[in-house]
Amino acid sequence: MYKKIAPNPTLSWRPSLLLAMTFVWHAAMLLVLVAFPSAWAWVLIALLINHLVLTAVGLWPRSTWLGPNWTRLPSGSATRGEIALTIDDGPHPEVTPQVLELLDRYRVKASFFCVGDAAGRYPDLCRSIVERGHAIENHTQHHSHYFSFLGPAGLAREIQAAQDTLIAITGCTPVFFRAPAGLRNPFLDPVLAKLGLRLATWTRRGFDTRTSDPVIVSRRLIRGLRAGSILLLHDGNSARSSSGVPVIVTVLPQLFEAAAAAGLHFVTLNQVADNEKR
Ligand SMILES: [Zn+2]
Fold first, then answer.
1. Ligand 1 centre and the CA of 115: distance in Å?
2. DSSP state for residue 39 in the 8-state scheme
3. Which end of the chain has the smaller Cβ count within 10 Å, N or C?
4. Residue 230 and residue 249: Cα distance in Å, rounded?
5. What are phi and psi of 232, to 5 degrees?
6. Active-site residue flag, 208
7. What is the spatial distance between Cα 145 and Cα 99, in angstroms, rounded to a whole number?
């Protein structure tokens, strides 16, 4: 049975080195502007370059330049031969039940990054995920493609709404967050800290919303698979093979067999976070 997790104590936020440098850069440019008003065009260009760098970093999901980001499991977990399977964009009425059956059959526990909207439409599936011992995490309320354009208030609304939806349905508090497509901006990190959520991306992803060939998706995940990896597949938005089977359904048994052959075993992200606190 899934252990209920108490609301996360507020994580403290400290600006990353890149953000701290950005603040200093803005202050320096202000001084230049005061001292040499005629240099305003150069100041503008300098600030534009700064913001282009921030935007580019936000479009790089595995970057840690905007704040902490789990791109792989902590070293202690890797030493124990652990890996994590994360499944995004669900729950989905057709795909999620098949995924849950496979997870049961191979005795694997996974972290489901659910979309609040979908969770509200299929609450029984969310409860089923939790009852079978998996973790539910936060993947925004609406999975908007414009998520990374939102300001602090918009980001907080999206994430808090999903948090409220998932807690109301399952009674469990998500402790990890993943942005749609992993895209974010510099406002996200302080919002997550305030809500007690950790950002998680991945070590390897199957691109299984776009690639309909399960052989290619399996290869992306299995090649070079090693302890500490965080893997990403999708139950919502899953591509279908030529025979109409969701890609994840074909890929999972191959992945589980490869992991077992390599002596690796699956854990949920919140189990690892819990161990880290001890
Ligand atoms: Zn997604």
1. 8
2. G
3. C
4. 18
5. -125, 125
6. no
7. 25
End-to-end CA distance of the chain: 21
Query: Which has the higher per-residue pLDDT, 139 or 19?
Result: 139
Total number of residues shown for the chain? 278
Give the CA radius of gyration of the chain: 20
- pLDDT surpasses 50 at 1: no
Contacts of 63 (CB under 8 A, 6+ apart): 57, 69
pTM of the model: 0.91
* Active-site annotation holds for 139: no
From 92, 234, 235, 265, active-site residue: 234
Indicate which residue of 88, 89, 189, 235 is catalytic: 88
Q: How far is CA 62 from CA 7, 56, 72, 184, 202, in A?
A: 26, 12, 10, 11, 7
Write the pLDDT tens digit of every residue in 110-165.
999 999 999 999 999 999 999 999 999 999 999 999 999 999 999 999 999 999 99
87 has a pLDDT exceeding 70? yes
Amino acid 275: pLDDT: 84
DSSP states along 110-167 = -EEEE-HHHHHH-HHHHHHHHHTT-EEEE--SS--TTGGG--HHHHHHHHHHHHHHHH
Alpha helices in 171-268, H assignment, sequence order: 188-195, 214-222, 247-261
Sign of the dihedral through C-alpha 118, 119, 123, 124:
positive
What tokens appear for 170 in the block?
A: 């399952």
